[in-house]
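Backbone shape codes:
===
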Amino acid sequence: MNKTELIAAIAEDAETTKANAEKVLNSFFKVVPADLAAHKDEENYKVQIMGFGTYKTSFVEGREGVNPKNRDEIVQIPDSFRVHFSAGQNFKEVVNGVVKTAKKISSTKAGKPIVTGKKKKKNK
């Protein structure tokens, strides 16, 4: 499946337009790496999506390596961060055929919507 096919599948499943699905997917592709980059120096920082999986980074020290085109040439590999993805339990169950479709994951706690920001005062 490529990005275009993924957008079409999301649009169909969410009963929305391909344009809206593409905006959401592009936003996900922008927000998750930016958030990981902003917190890469924090130990044990992760982006966890319940039922889907967890993204996290780890630091890898630089080292000497060998140029594959010229085995006699030594090259320096710089320090870097690697990104790891661990599939969530529901993700694994769907892939392994334990359940036929993914469970709907709600962004609410105990049936109450999660509200951020200040509450508006009612006018009397």
